[in-house]
Write a structure and sequence with these properties.
Elements: H1 7-10, H2 13-22, H3 25-37, H4 39-50, H5 60-69, H6 75-83, H7 100-107, H8 111-126, H9 128-133, H10 146-158, H11 166-175, H12 180-187, H13 223-229, H14 232-240
Length: about 240
C-alpha cells in the first residue's frame, strides 16, 4: 500500500508555522529548509506570529521572522518597521548605549557591520581611554554593566538562529573543557594570537561555524575573551542558556 505525501509537504503555511514554533531546537533545525523554501508563502503571516514572542527574551525564531520580513522592501517589511521603529527586541543599557544600529545591522544580516558595532560598543563600555586607544584591556571588562553585556549577547543570539554570541562561545569553551587550543578550530578562528578579520580569514554569514561571531581580538592572548566570558552576566547566560 502506497503512503501519501509527507505531512510537511501538505501542511498549510499556518500549520508549518505552528509546527516550527512548537518544535524542539533540534527539530527546528531540520524544518529550517522548509521554512526558507516557503518564505514567500509565509511572509504575510509573520508579523502576527512575531507578536506572539517576548521582545524581552532572545528566542531566535523571532529574529528569523524579522529577517524574513525585512528580506524584501514591500508592505510586510514596512508594516514591521512602523510597528517596531526602534527594532523588535527590547534592549537595556546601564551606560546609555543606543542599540538600534546594532539591531538593525543584525536584522539585515549585515554581520560584518554588526561585528564592528559590537567592538565599538565594548570600547564605549570600557571607558574613554579604551575609545581613545582603539581597543579594550581585559582589566576593563569587570566593571562593564551587566545590562549591556546581556543586551549584546541577546542581540547576537536572537538574530543568528542561536548560533552566534558570547554565551554560545562560552558554552563551546565549556564543551572543550576550557581548552582554548581546542576552541579556536570549533569557532573557525585561526589560532590564539592571530587577528583574523583581514584580509579574508573570516566568514560573515549564517553558514559560518557555530560561535564564529562576534570576533574578539586575540593579538594579546586570551585574556580579553576570558574576561568577557567570565563576566557574571555572561556566565549566567552560559550556564542557563
Amino acid at each position: 500500500m502506497l503512503s501519501g505525501p509527507p505531512a510537511s509537504a501538505t501542511a498549510s503555511a499556518e500549520q508549518l508555522l505552528e509546527r516550527f514554533s512548537s518544535s524542539s531546537p533540534r527539530q527546528r533545525r531540520s524544518l529550517l529548509p522548509q521554512i526558507e523554501a516557503r518564505s514567500q508563502e509565509l511572509r504575510p503571516l509573520l508579523l502576527q506570529a512575531l507578536r506572539g514572542h517576548d521582545p524581552d527574551g532572545d528566542d531566535w525564531i523571532a529574529g528569523l521572522w524579522v529577517q524574513m520580513l525585512l528580506a524584501e522592501d514591500d508592505n510586510h517589511s514596512q508594516a514591521l518597521l512602523e510597528e517596531y521603529p526602534g527594532g523588535w527586541l527590547n534592549l537595556a543599557s546601564g551606560d546609555g548605549i543606543a542599540y538600534a544600529p546594532l539591531q538593525e545591522a543584525l536584522a539585515q544580516r549585515s554581520f560584518e557591520l554588526a561585528d564592528r558595532i559590537t567592538s565599538e560598543v565594548l570600547r564605549q563600555l570600557a571607558g574613554s581611554e579604551a575609545v581613545r586607544r582603539g581597543y579594550v584591556f581585559y582589566s576593563e571588562v569587570a566593571p562593564m554593566p551587566s545590562l549591556d553585556l546581556t543586551s549584546l549577547d541577546r542581540l547576537w543570539v536572537c538574530y543568528s538562529r542561536g548560533r552566534f554570541g558570547f554565551s554560545v562561545q562560552g558554552r563551546l569553551l565549556r564543551a572543550c573543557n576550557g581548552r582554548w587550543d581546542q576552541l579556536w578550530p570549533r569557532l573557525g578562528w585561526k589560532s590564539e594570537g592571530t587577528w583574523t578579520r583581514y584580509p579574508s580569514g573570516f566568514q560573515w554569514n549564517l553558514e559560518a561555524p557555530e560561535g564564529h561571531m562576534p570576533l574578539i581580538n586575540q593579538l594579546r592572548g586570551v585574556r580579553l575573551m576570558d574576561a568577557l566570558l567570565n563576566h557574571p552576566a555572561l556566565q549566567h547566560r552560559i550556564v542557563t542558556g
